[in-house]
Amino acid sequence: MDGELLTGGGLNQVFRVGEAVRRPAGPWAPRVHELLRHLAPLGIAPVPLGLDEDHELLSYLPGDVGHVFPSDDASLIESARMLRRLHDATLDLVDVRDGWQHPAREPVEVVLHGDFAPYNTTYRDGLPVGIFDFDSAHPGPRWWDVSWAIIQFVFGLPHERERRALLFCEAYGCDYDDEHVLTRLDDAIRTIREHPAFVKQRAERHDLHYRGLIEYVQANRA
Known about the structure:
The chain is α+β, with helices and mostly antiparallel strands. It has helices at residues 29-39, 73-88, 142-154, 161-172, 178-194, 199-203, 206-219; strands at residues 4-6, 14-17, 20-24, 48-51, 55-59, 64-65, 110-112, 121-124, 127-131, 138-140. The protein folds into two domains: 4-59, Phosphorylase Kinase, domain 1 (2-Layer Sandwich); 64-219, Transferase(Phosphotransferase), domain 1 (Orthogonal Bundle).
């Protein structure tokens, strides 16, 4: 395939072709494209450009992918606000329950991104400006995305975790709940150990990283 191979957090090879991105498309792609068209006015998600049986074409989001992401408060606050804007924009789609990769998760409040994390975020001038890889989008409760974001944006760094977790939740507009975080960590471990696509993650023992975070949360509960 012609084009520049891009690096992100996903499990697929993704290529940039001009100002577009070409990537493998799953059976859920039509529903995701419907979501992306709905999010287009926000300017923070890719715009669908084409779809065939095997691949999808999306607009390219310029910026730096957050494999090493900024640790300042301004970046963290903007990440939380971006997630809130994304969630609030999906309220009209919560009754669309079929066609997603994952079944709806009760209680349904919004359409989730499903993997809101720095490796699926683009940054410019140290601030997050876009989010991509919506393959895991599905209807569900806000806390499912918020808890994963705390695990990735906050616990991904070793310092000031409690303060930064509370700051993220304040910026989003919710309370911090360590039970929700523990549930997401358990789910991540189960996915890594059982999902057939997570071969590399199993080999690199990413499950041990999340097991360590469970121990951290349990040791630092209020």
